[in-house]
Amino acid sequence: MRTWSFVKGHGTRNDFVVLKDRSAMMRLTQADVRFLCDRRGGIGGDGVLRAVKAEHVPEWTGDPDLWFMDYRNADGSIAEMCGNGLRVFVRALLDCDLVPVGPVPIATRAGVRIATPLNDGRIMITMGPVTGFPEPVPVRVAGRDLTGTQVAVGNPHCVVVLSPAEVDAIDLSHQPEVPADRYPAGANVEFAARVGDGHYRMRVHERGVGETESCGTGAVAVAYALSEGRVAQSRVDVPGGSLEVLLDDDGTARLVGPAVIVARGDVALPD
Average pLDDT in the 52-79 region? Predict the structure, then answer.
C-alpha cells in the first residue's frame, strides 16, 4: 500500500487535491487520480495538482528550476491549464514555504503563468493570450440545439449565451455535445448570461469532470466572449463565488480570485 501526503484546497469551490512530488517519484496513474477525486471513497476533488520540478517533465523545454503544475481532471485525463487550480497550487506552495512571497512563475502545459498574492488574500494570475474564433459552434445539451463561441484560454472552451433564467434551469448532468473537428480533445462548455455592464454569471460543464461550481479559464472565456474581446474589467459570478477578469490591450488576460487550503494529511492508496 502506498501512502502519500496531500493538501486539499479550493478556489470558489472548484476543489483540488495537491501532491508534492519535487523529484517526480510518484507514479500517478489514471486510477490513482480517480480514487483521490472520489467524493465517497477517496478525498474528493474536481482534479489533482501534482507539484513537480519542471526539470523532471520531459515535454517541458523552458526553465528547469520552475515548479510545474501537472494537472489531471477527475477522470484521470491530462489538461493543459486550470485557472482556479493554479491559484490553489500557488497557495499550497506558499503555505509550505516552497516559493517566496511575491510574483511566482509557474510552468504549465499552456506555458509559464505568473501568480501574484494580493493584500486582500486573493491571488492574481496571468492567463496568457485569449483567442476567439468567429465561426459559430453548434452545441447540443439536454435535447436542445444551441450556438456557442469558441474561445481558447490555453485550453478549449465553448461559451453559450443564454438568459439568466435559462442558465439556472439548464440540465448539465450530461456532457454537452460539440463538433469533434473543432474540439478534437473535447471542450469545457460555459453557459453564461449578462447581469449588468461588465457583470456576468455562468455555469460550466468541464471535460473529464462534469459540472463544477467554478472554472477559472471558463470565467476568462465568458468575459472575453461577452465583452467581444474588448479591453475590460469584468466580474463573473459562478455557483461557488465570484471571479474578476481583466482583459488587457495586448490580448492577454488576468484572473483574480480566492484560494483556500482546507486540509492536510496522508492518504493510503489502494494497490
Answer: 96
Closest Cα partner for 72 from 98, 50, 42? 50
Tell me the C-alpha distance between 144 and 166, whole Å. 12
Q: Is the pLDDT at 251 greater than 90, yes or no?
A: no
Domain extent listing, the chain: 2-126+258-269, 129-256
For 155, phi then psi, to 5°, come to -145, 165
Q: Angle at CA 261, nearest 5°, toward 258 and 263?
A: 155
Q: What CATH number should be reported for the domain whose range is 129-256?
A: 3.10.310.10
Alpha-helix runs per DSSP H in 227-265:
none
pLDDT band, residue 1 (cuts 50/70/90): confident
Query: Which residues are identified as catalytic?
Result: 82, 215
pLDDT at 42 (0 to 100) = 97
Q: For residue 163, what are the CA distances in angstroms to 167, 239, 242?
A: 6, 16, 19
Q: Give yes or no on whether 2-126+258-269 and 129-256 have one common fold.
A: yes
Q: Which CATH number fits domain 2-126+258-269: 3.10.310.10, 3.40.190.10, 3.40.50.1950, 3.40.50.700?
A: 3.10.310.10
Please name the residues in contact with 226: beta carbons below 8 A apart, sequence gap of 6 or more.
159, 161, 192, 194, 200, 234
User: Are the C-beta atoms of residues 234 and 200 closer than 8 Å to each other?
Assistant: yes
